[in-house]
Specification:
Blueprint (H helix, E strand, L loop, with lengths): L1 E8 L5 H7 L3 H11 L3 E8 L3 E8 L5 H19 L3 H6 L8 H11 L10 H15 L5 H20 L9 H10 L9 E5 L3 H12 L4 E5 L5 H8 L2 E3 L2 H5 L4 E4 L16 E4 L3 E4 L25 H15 L8 E5 L16 E4 L1 H7 L5 H55 L6 H51 L14
Parallel strand pairs: 4-5, 4-7, 5-6, 7-10, 10-11
Antiparallel strand pairs: 1-3, 2-3, 8-9
Helix pairs in contact: 2-3, 3-15, 5-7, 5-14, 6-7, 7-14, 14-15
GO molecular function, one term: glutamyl-tRNA reductase activity
Function: Catalyzes the NADPH-dependent reduction of glutamyl-tRNA(Glu) to glutamate 1-semialdehyde (GSA).
Catalytic activity: (S)-4-amino-5-oxopentanoate + tRNA(Glu) + NADP(+) = L-glutamyl-tRNA(Glu) + NADPH + H(+)
Length: 488
């Protein structure tokens, strides 16, 4: 059995390429299990920072099997996203061995995020496992891997200050926007979206003292979302924009159309990580379709902003100063037309620009977190490899139970042959006495058997990793960005 993962992230790719690859993220894991006999489990982690596929690969347990599985996933990604297979293969980066666990544990802890230390990714990792489980696509090894990742993230949260200041893409965006805005209690905000990410954005706005928040959604969910949170729902986006100081857009309503015309839509989850749609579906302006109806256009285009600002200028009169506007586009599949940034008096921050402004975190707290990750990685590998050792220990214990039963039966039979009756209480006492002696003698044998089995498992794992690395290099992927993490 081989544990394998493929990762594309903001470290290696521009946001537009990552956006394309993640278009069909929701379908890749289950499709991999259904279409490739060697893949027995799959979990997909798709966020605004990354697109990762973790796989459990059955025989052949060698480099060729790893190579086949990785290329099969690249083919599925290409088919789902519309890019070529060469682009899909070249979009991922590679790791092998214990780095599979180490990488996922770092991701879950926020150590590999656009904003280092953000906490929302932990929930996304947990939900990724739940979705794979609901779709029947996970495996026992992947369950162990992801559950350990969640426990490691929680431990880092409890034992370090990493993420203690509410670090997230949302908070970073609002921090940058604040330099161009009035005091927060005076800021008039339009929030586009009704998913969990929109909920997190509204909470962050309220925490800063912003009370004037109007919610827009092309799906019709704005009214209930706003009522539940004490905000105001609007149905006319252009009118709402006329006096807006800040626009926060996180509907994620752009996406491709599936066969049969049904839209496939995703909306970011709380704090900056993409999950299957919980909010908007189609934007109200269906005239925004691009590419011959193949994809949805921007939820907020430049023309809408121009119309809104023109109306505001007319209403205010020629002498009135033009109100500046800050637009935060927090959706992976850009909600906002990039041409909005070219408009006079409008400042646009999207994920790419937020990435460029992401602050570094102090080395001390990062070092503390990484030490916890290292320990968790070692424990995970010992647990995973220890399953083979446990088999050897179980065999010894089973043999000991057989010997105990045989000895007790022989001694009871001997006493009865001598004319001494043995009742149930005496038989149980005799069994306990024999078990203590046999198990005491067995301790050294168990320690030796476990150590031997662990050594064999470790050697096999190292051989598989070396074989996988050689196969992937031979396939011409070593210089590309394909990430394949493999272990035995």
């Amino acid at each position: 059995m081989v544990l394998l993962s493929m990762t594309a992230s903001h470290h290696e790719l521009d946001m537009s390429t990552l956006e394309l690859l993640s278009t069909g993220a929701a379908s890749v894991g289950r499709a991999a299990v259904e279409t490739c006999e060697a893949i027995t489990g799959a979990v997909v982690v798709a966020t605004c920072n990354r697109f990762e596929v973790y796989l459990d690969v059955d025989s052949p347990v060698d480099g060729r099997g790893v190579q086949h599985a990785s290329h099969e996933v690249a083919r599925l990604v290409a088919a789902a996203s519309g890019v070529s297979e060469d682009v899909a293969v070249g979009a991922f980066s590679t790791r092998t061995g214990p780095d599979v666990a180490a990488h996922l544990f770092e991701v879950a802890a926020g150590l590999d995020s656009m904003v280092v230390g953000e906490r929302e990714i932990a929930g996304q990792v947990k939900r990724a496992l739940e979705e794979a489980r609901e779709g029947g696509a996970t495996s026992s090894t992947l369950e162990l891997l992801f559950q350990t990742a969640s426990r490691t993230s929680k431990r880092i949260s409890n034992e370090t200050t990493l993420g203690g200041n509410g670090r997230s893409v949302v908070s970073l965006g609002l921090d940058l926007a604040s330099a161009e805005l009035p005091p927060w209690r005076q800021v008039r905000t339009v929030l586009i979206g009704t998913g969990s990410y929109a909920g997190a954005s509204l909470a962050a706005l309220r925490a800063r003292g912003c009370e004037d928040v109007r919610v827009y959604s092309g799906s019709g969910r704005a009214e209930q979302f706003a009522a539940d949170r004490g905000a105001v729902a609007v149905t006319d986006l252009v009118t709402a924009l006329e006096d807006a100081d800040l626009v926060v857009s996180c509907s994620g309503a752009r996406g491709r159309v599936l066969a049969g015309g049904a839209p496939r839509v995703t909306e970011p989850g709380a704090g900056g990580d993409q999950v299957p749609a919980e909010g908007d579906e189609l934007p109200a302006d269906r005239d925004a379709l691009l590419g011959g109806g193949d994809a949805l256009g921007h939820v907020l285009d430049a023309a809408a902003v121009v119309r809104a600002r023109s109306r505001a200028a007319e209403a205010a009169g020629d002498e009135a100063p033009h109100r500046p506007m800050v637009v935060l586009d927090l959706a992976l599949h850009r909600d906002v037309d990039p041409r909005v940034a070219d408009l006079d008096g409008v400042l646009l921050y999207d994920l790419a620009s937020l990435k460029a402004h992401s602050p570094a975190l102090g080395s001390l707290v990062v070092g503390q977190a990484r030490r916890i990750v290292d320990r968790a990685t070692q424990d995970f590998e010992e647990t995973r490899l220890g399953r083979a050792a446990d088999t050897a220990v179980v065999e010894l214990l089973d043999d000991a139970d057989r010997r105990i039963a045989a000895e007790v039966a022989e001694r009871v039979a001997g006493r009865r042959a001598a004319g001494t009756e043995v009742d149930e209480a005496e038989a149980e006492a005799l069994t306990r006495s024999v078990r203590r002696r046999v198990h005491a003698d067995l301790h050294d044998a168990i320690v030796a058997a476990r150590a031997s089995a662990l050594a064999v498992a470790q050697a096999e794992a190292e051989a598989v990793v070396a074989d996988a690395e050689a196969a992937l290099r031979g396939a011409g992927t070593s210089g590309s960005d394909v990430e394949v993490c493999a272990g035995r």
